[in-house]
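User: Need the bound-state model for adenosine monophosphate:
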Amino acid sequence: MSTENISFASLNLAPEILKALDEFGYTTPTPIQAQAIPIVLEGRDLMAGAQTGTGKTAAFALPMLQKLMPLASTSASPARHPIRALILVPTRELAIQVEASVKVYAKHSPLRSLVVYGGVDIKTQTPHLMKGVEILVATPGRLLDHVEQRTLQLGQVQMLILDEADRMLDMGFMPDLKRILALLPKQRQNLMFSATFSTEIKKLSEEFLKDPILVEVARSNATNENVTQKVYHVAQEDKHALLAQILNETETKQVIVFTKTKLTASRLARQLVREGISADAIHGDKSQAERIQALDAFKQGKINALIATDVAARGLDIDQLPMVINYEIPSAPEDYVHRIGRTGRAGALGIAISLVSPDEEKYLKEIEKLIKREITKETTNLPARGSRSSSDHQPREKSYDRAASTPRPSPAKKSIDPWFDKPYEPTGDIAAKPQTNQLYKTNKPKREVAALLGGLPRKG
Ligand code: AMP
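Assistant: Bound-state model below.
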């Protein structure tokens, strides 16, 4: 059965929340929302397999607000606004986005939310904390800073949410997470969201979830069916020229270009700017203000190409991003899935282009193994070296086919077929594949198709 028939109202959400959703333009719950919301409202622990772009934020934020609603207070006293829900996220950008979403959904309730993250003066956050907030979104390190400074109390936390748990582990947050868990009341509800199910993630979930229900909206490590993936085999020293060509030829206005290192990101952004392409880099060495500025400029269309490293890009929520380019493909195949998950959201079409040098062939093979498909190979039509203005003037070591027909990447346009504009319809084998995970209890008997993308019976 399709999730099309499920409404937010049928999920038993309060009128205040429904009103906010309506004003924000959400009409239908996405599959992860349709599946997760009833489970969270029941008070169960949840392990959710969902990538960015599936609507996972609302999947935890809406039932969280619903559960906190009876405790909402209009009193000005900080004591009436203890931290009741703690949302831990790996990056500052994601923290900001998650809290912004919570604020939108909570706008018609007196529940207060706040975001705290590192890289900014802790003193600026303290006065807001002191006023009292029910919902705190935090990066683990900064949360512990506040704990040390005794600027917050965690004794009344009744709900803990770990968002992008896999990335938190990748970023080495495990010791911080353990310290935080030890500070929380034992009696609480735990929700964990992860794009992938590695052995470490399973271990973490065993450690901190109690008898969880597993929901999954896409096969772990699956890639979005709406994203057209292409590979160009190109010598490392020719990548810059090919990238410039793709960016110049495409009608697409917003492209994220991924590099492996901060250094390459900065250098590439400068090179592109010199060639008249509006670009900026976003990576961990930039100050928070610079990162926000670059992201805002990109969102407003002032910058066409945002050059990002994996860590910096994590959590970037840019609606309708039509194109992602891997200037360098990642050595961890899961990162490829994360990267291309930036495009093709909510049923829109997207394009993901990877520039693969001979040295990177082995990584490409790993990726194809993980996503269980071969990525279409394209040929380049770069002009002969010397006639282009690349600033990468290194000798070419290997020739490749430059004579083939124009490989112009088609811009990701919304299809005229309205099917593509429907949110989160199940497609292909993602929808058809039953989830099997021995480690968790699933809600199969009760909701026999709940574990499948989009498959939830209607309530009532
Ligand atoms: P997330 O996976 O939480 O990062 O959400 C991805 C995007 O989907 C965000 O831009 C959300 O605002 C949007 N979104 C989430 N839920 C819905 C919904 N039910 N209807 C339409 N858009 C949604």
